[in-house]
């Protein structure tokens, strides 16, 4: 298990251009929280640091879309994001924001130090410029075809399909997202960090030094980048939103967000240390401190190549001990998308599943995308809750608490001599903290969550084998021992579950009256102490830790997603281009009239065709129409319709059709009659 030490734990700074969804929670914040809570419980000095990233190009993009200032956007979403983290028990020691004065000051000082030490290259180069908007384009304001995988909607800094990091000038057929115009190249001066100068350092530090202890997905991406050859990367941008470049001759330029955002970890640590009366520097500059970055795979290059190169260039900072990046979480088979509303938003989840934060935390941990992309499904979520949390964890605790209150008025009974089974069960219990620790310290949180559940399984098996509800009738003393052992397991679960299920842990500690114990129980107590809940200790009445989730609740969520899918399809449905121009004379040749359908029947052996009798006002005629998949014969009888009456007759399956019913369709593909429902519009009325 972890030896006492100092840890700086960072979680990726979320962009304040939208709320937080389950992909963020699964990929970064729950694993980081599990790790940080565990380290605190094992006696370590932990600074768990995060904050809002408020300078990305996505912020002014969102502001333009909503017609407000960037400040309005960042204030709105900073508040929503911060509350979501609090609601889900993410135990940051500090949650800051990059718009804070301390961050502007820290980032500016960092830049000036590298600038004064000659670590940058100053170059005049050609950058993409929007001639209609009359401004240089940040990478996120440019989209085009990825030169590596051919994805047609890649951004100027990254292709979200293949994960390649790009420069905007790499894109094929680029266009401005501001005006839609094709960008031109225009000269501008910027400062660059020469990453190529740090290749040898990175090879030695990562490819040699961390070959065996870093995740293969992280190591592989770093190796690919280095093998491909690193190039200088701009640290400044022509924008009016961000931290002004703090040197002469840089008017109208700001620090590039990838440069300023990771410095946000440092400024947030400074903010925390000042509030707590601590010295911030040991958390970033002491070689005995372990720095760990929790991120998603789209941030690997920034945290494993660029930020370490910045820290190396500055010279006084430690480098990360590990960067356990996760892959992506998909939702019901499709990629999570903020812009397409294909997500489970945390604030909405709590409205629909109140007080069930731990259920989502557990489901996301048990299915975490640690080594490959994984899929979140509502059915799996339901199964994790009903079959694991309710049936295993909750069932054990409920049995123990109910029986203790029933048999002993909530008083922990005094045990008799322990049997071999009792001793074996306690020995197994004492082994679990080390097993779970090993998984956590190797960043295998899925594995750790299942080992936690195995503690509850141990308790269930012990009770099922001993059957105290039967034994109480024949051997009261043995029953006391059984319940005593079961209560020790329950107490251990209250402690071991805290990193994973903090709300459940608190509830269970309250039921077991942990606050009345002499000292607060720690992780290592389960191994060291012979007794966790002493005889004579009184517990409270029970309450269910988890409740079953019904099929109807899950169907509601699936229906929401289906509605989102249809809305996206409707929005993305292409409008047919205008046909070639026609003359008024050609149009006037068409005789379009109002008719009424008076009879309808299905065409034999034809899936799509209805045979209609239509009163056109001129006469009653037969029209064959391909609408049978959308309407039954009974539905259309009596409907007024728009008819092209002078269309040349055409034989369809042996039936002569004398005209055409005019239709359109909804974005979802449903056929709709062009139907004049106004009173007084009679068959034979001419449409002109």
TrEMBL record:
Motif annotated as 'HIGH' region, chain positions: 14-24
Enzyme class: ligase
Subcellular localization(s) per the UniProt record: Cytoplasm
Highest taxon, organism lineage: Bacteria
CC terms in the record's Gene Ontology section: cytosol
Cofactor notes: Binds 1 zinc ion per subunit.
Keywords, in A-Z order: Aminoacyl-tRNA synthetase, ATP-binding, Cytoplasm, Ligase, Metal-binding, Nucleotide-binding, Protein biosynthesis, RNA-binding, tRNA-binding, Zinc
Protein name: Methionine--tRNA ligase
Residues that hold ATP according to the record: 338
């Amino acid at each position: 298990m972890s030896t006492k030490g100092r840890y700086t734990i960072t979680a990726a700074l979320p962009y304040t251009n939208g709320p937080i969804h389950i992909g963020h929670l699964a990929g970064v914040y729950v694993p980081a929280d599990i790790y940080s809570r565990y380290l605190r419980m094992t006696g370590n000095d932990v600074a768990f640091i995060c904050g809002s990233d408020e300078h990305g190009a996505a912020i002014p993009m969102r502001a333009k879309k909503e017609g407000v200032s960037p400040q309005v956007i960042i204030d709105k979403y900073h508040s929503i994001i911060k509350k979501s983290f609090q609601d889900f028990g993410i135990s940051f020691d500090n949650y800051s924001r990059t718009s804070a004065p301390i961050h502007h000051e820290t980032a500016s000082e960092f830049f000036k130090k590298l600038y004064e030490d000659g670590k940058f290259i100053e170059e005049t180069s050609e950058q993409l410029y929007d001639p209609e908007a009359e401004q240089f384009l940040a990478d996120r304001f440019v989209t085009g075809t990825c030169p590596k995988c051919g994805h047609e909607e890649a951004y100027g800094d990254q292709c979200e399909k293949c994960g390649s990091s790009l420069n905007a000038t790499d894109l094929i057929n680029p266009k401005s997202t501001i005006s839609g115009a094709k960008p031109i190249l225009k000269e501008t001066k910027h400062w660059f960090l020469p990453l190529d100068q740090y290749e040898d350092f990175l090879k030695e530090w990562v490819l040699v030094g961390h070959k065996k202890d870093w995740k293969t997905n992280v190591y592989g991406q770093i190796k690919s980048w280095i093998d491909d050859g690193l190039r200088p990367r701009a640290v400044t941008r022509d924008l009016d939103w961000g931290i002004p470049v703090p040197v002469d001759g840089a008017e109208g330029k700001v620090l590039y967000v990838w440069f300023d955002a990771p410095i946000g970890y440092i400024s947030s640590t400074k903010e925390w240390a000042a509030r707590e009366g601590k010295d911030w520097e040991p958390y970033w500059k002491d070689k005995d401190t372990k720095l760990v970055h929790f991120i998603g795979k789209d941030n690997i290059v920034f945290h494993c190549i660029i930020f370490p190169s910045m820290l190396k260039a500055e010279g006084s900072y430690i480098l990360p001990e590990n960067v356990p990046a996760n892959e992506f979480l998909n939702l019901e088979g499709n990629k999570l998308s903020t812009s397409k509303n294909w997500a489970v938003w945390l604030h909405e989840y709590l409205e629909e599943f109140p007080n069930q934060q731990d259920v989502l935390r557990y489901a996301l941990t048990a299915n975490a995308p640690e080594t490959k992309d994984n899929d979140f499904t509502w059915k799996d979520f339901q199964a994790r809750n009903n079959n694991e949390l309710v049936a295993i964890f909750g069932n054990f605790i409920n049995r123990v608490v109910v029986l203790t209150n029933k048999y002993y008025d909530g008083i922990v009974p005094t045990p008799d001599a322990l049997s071999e089974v009792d001793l074996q069960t306690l020995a197994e219990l004492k082994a679990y903290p080390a097993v779970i620790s090993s998984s956590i310290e190797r960043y295998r949180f899925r594995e750790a969550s299942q080992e936690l559940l195995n503690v509850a399984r141990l308790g269930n098996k012990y009770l099922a084998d001993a059957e105290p509800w039967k034994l109480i009738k024949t051997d009261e003393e043995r029953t006391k021992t059984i319940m005593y052992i079961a209560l020790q397991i329950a107490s251990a679960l209250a402690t071991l579950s805290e990193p994973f299920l903090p709300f459940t842990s608190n509830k269970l500690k309250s039921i077991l009256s942990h606050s009345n114990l002499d000292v607060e129980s720690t992780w290592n107590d389960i191994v060291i102490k012979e007794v966790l809940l002493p005889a004579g200790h009184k517990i409270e009445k029970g309450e269910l830790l988890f409740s079953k989730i019904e099929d109807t609740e899950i169907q509601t969520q699936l229906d929401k997603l289906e509605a989102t899918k249809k809305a996206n399809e409707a929005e993305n449905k292409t409008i047919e281009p205008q046909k070639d121009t026609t003359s008024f004379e050609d149009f006037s040749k068409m005789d379009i009239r109002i008719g009424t359908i008076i009879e309808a029947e299905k065409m034999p052996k034809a899936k799509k065709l209805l045979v209609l009798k239509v009163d056109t006002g001129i006469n009653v005629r037969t029209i064959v129409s391909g609408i049978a998949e959308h309407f039954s014969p009974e539905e259309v009888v009596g409907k007024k319709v728009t008819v092209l009456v002078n269309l040349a007759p055409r034989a369809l399956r042996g039936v002569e059709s004398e005209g055409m019913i005019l239709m359109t369709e909804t974005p979802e593909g449903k056929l709709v009659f062009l139907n004049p429902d106004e009173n007084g519009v009679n068959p034979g009325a001419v449409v002109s």
